[in-house]
Structure formats: C-alpha cells, structure tokens
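4.2 Preliminary Data

To establish feasibility before requesting continued support, the project team ran the inverse folding procedure on a target of 337 residues. The structure was first converted into the token representation described in Section 3, and no sequence information of any kind was made available to the design step. The complete token record follows.
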C-alpha cells in the first residue's frame, strides 16, 4: 500500500498540475466561461494562455518538472539535498525550457535567488525574500522520502530543499505543510489527519528562515479548512460555492499563505474524492496548476494512485513521458533509510 500511496502522490501532483495548465493565471470568471464551474478533464492550452500557449492536453508544467528534478536530487543525496546543487539544476532546467520556447520559467522567488547566487551572494541570504509557493509546489518528493514519525528530520530536509530560494518563515511553513501531509498520507493518514499534521509541521517551520510580514500559514490552513462544512452525513458542498469562497476569501495567488491553505481547503471539501478535488482546484482561478498539484499530491498520498482514474494516469504519464513508479520506488528506499 505504501508503494501505491507514494506513486499516488506523484501522480496526483502531475494530474493536478496538468489539469490546471490551461487555467493557470486566469481569473475565475474566464475559467467558468470556458470550462464551467468544474473542469471535466485535461484540455490543451488555448492560444491566449499567458504561460502555456501551445501545450497539449495533459501536459505538466514547472510544478511537476521541478518536483521531479528535486526528487532525483533527494534520491542521489539520500534525503538532504544541497542548496547550491539544486539551484544549479533549476538554472539548467530553465535554460532548457527557454530553448524549447516556453514562457513557463522560474517563478519570482526562485529567479531572484538564483540571480543573486550567480552574483556570489551568500546562500543563507539568497532566499530571504522568497515568500511565494515555489518551495511548496516542488517539495512532495521530500515528503515521500521521509517518515512522518521523524518530524525534525522532515523539517531539516524541507529546509535543505527550500532555503536557497525560499528562506522565509512563510514559504518554509507552506513547504513543510505539504511535505508533512504527503508523508503522513504515505503512513496511512486520512486527508483530515494529514491536514492536522501539516498544521503541526507548518507551525514549527514558521520559526525558520528570515522573518517577512505575512499571515501565518498554519493558522490559515486551520481557518480555510474550517470554512468548509464536512460533518459526516452532510451533502458535499457544491463545487461553485467552494470555488467562490476560495477565490474571494482564502485567496489563490502565488503567495504561500493563500495558495497552500486553498489547496488544503479543497481537500477538506472533497476528502474522499481526489479526482473531484483536483478538478475543483484547477477551476478555482489564480494559481490553479500549483493549487491542484498540491491538493493532488496530498490526496494521492492518502488514497493511493487508485484515487485517480486509470485513464488520467495513463494520459499524464504518456503525454509527458513520465516514469513515476520508478521515482516513487527510489524515494521509498530513502524513506526506509
Ligand atoms: Mg506551474
């Protein structure tokens, strides 16, 4: 079952990312006009898509690509990656993307940090303004590779994988939340239990890194999930109502304290339906691909790869030429120590 959950986390990440590829960075009203309140599956990017024009249905974006890049480093390093090596690999990745004509390049925090590293700035300083969700979007492999019974080790590895570019309490607590939830899911947690562990990890990680003003990620995960009424026996909330709440109130921007709580709130709305959760996240507006990737990773860790339809898994693996089973297997070997 651990194998299915580890593979499920990677599939959920890739499926959520690919569902959100055509809707990313768009306002919710435009997404509803084009795809309805709930996108029905993978779509090619329309010609006016600001980041992904020309991408085919099922194509992943930077979220999955950077997560896989980090995952391979986690495997070769035995768990704790070297920040400089990660920055170098991210730079090479961006060069490759640019050569392919992509506009989906490094995000604002990572870009700034790598520019400063290249200028010779100390690696403890390069991530000091990194408050956006780039560390959280790529951190899933760290959660797969680290047992949830070892929270200090998990946080140490999250920080190692994030601080070069996102060395702020905001971004580190967001990344810790995602890694912790994924790790807990692989150890058998439900979505609700994984979210509780995410709050614990985020609270602890918020004291790490440089201080930057911004609302507390752990508190906002608790608050955002509490907005959704999921009392047993209740009818699941209507997708359009959840979307509107997240878009208008929780926030769906690149900010760590918006998009990561939004991802957990989607899961709170549909804890037992990963496919519905990722499609809702991809329809919500704003940073849809990242919100759906994070929600998908946690849902996949809690439910296993069978939580997603087989044809969605086959499409995302085929379109992007992914071997997620192989990486999941290697990450689980690191987890076993
Ligand atoms: Mg993306």
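Position-by-position output of the design step:
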């Amino acid at each position: 079952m651990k194998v299915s959950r580890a593979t499920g986390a990677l599939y959920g990440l890739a499926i959520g990312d690919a569902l959100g590829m055509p809707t990313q960075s768009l306002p919710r009203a435009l997404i509803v006009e084009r795809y309805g309140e709930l996108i029905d599956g993978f779509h090619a990017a329309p010609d006016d898509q600001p980041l992904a024009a020309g991408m085919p249905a099922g194509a992943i974006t930077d979220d999955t690509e950077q997560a896989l890049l980090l995952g391979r480093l986690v495997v070769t390093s035995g768990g704790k990656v070297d920040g400089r090596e990660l920055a170098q690999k991210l730079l090479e990745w961006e060069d490759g993307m640019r050569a392919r004509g992509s506009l989906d390049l490094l995000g604002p925090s990572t870009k700034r940090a790598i520019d400063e590293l290249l200028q010779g700035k100390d690696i403890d300083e390069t991530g000091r303004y990194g408050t956006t969700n780039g560390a959280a979007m790529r951190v899933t492999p760290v959660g797969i590779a680290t047992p949830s019974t070892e929270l200090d080790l998990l946080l140490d590895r999250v920080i190692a994988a994030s601080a070069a570019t996102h060395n702020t309490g905001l971004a580190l607590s967001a990344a810790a939340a995602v890694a912790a939830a994924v790790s807990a899911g692989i150890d058998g947690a439900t979505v609700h239990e994984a979210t509780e562990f995410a709050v614990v990890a985020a609270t602890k990680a918020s004291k790490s890194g440089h201080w930057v003003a911004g609302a507390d990620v752990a508190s906002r995960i608790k608050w955002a999930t509490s907005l959704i009424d999921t009392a047993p026996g209740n009818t699941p909330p209507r997708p359009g109502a959840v979307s509107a709440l997240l878009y208008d109130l929780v926030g769906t921007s690149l900010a760590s304290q918006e998009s990561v709580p939004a991802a957990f709130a989607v899961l709170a709305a549909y804890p037992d339906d990963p496919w519905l959760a990722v499609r809702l996240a991809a329809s919500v507006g704003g940073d849809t691909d990242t919100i759906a990737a994070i929600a998908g990773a946690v849902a996949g860790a809690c439910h296993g790869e069978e939580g997603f339809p087989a044809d969605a898994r086959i499409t995302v693996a085929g379109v992007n030429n992914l071997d997620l089973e192989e990486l999941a297997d290697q990450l689980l070997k690191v987890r076993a120590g």
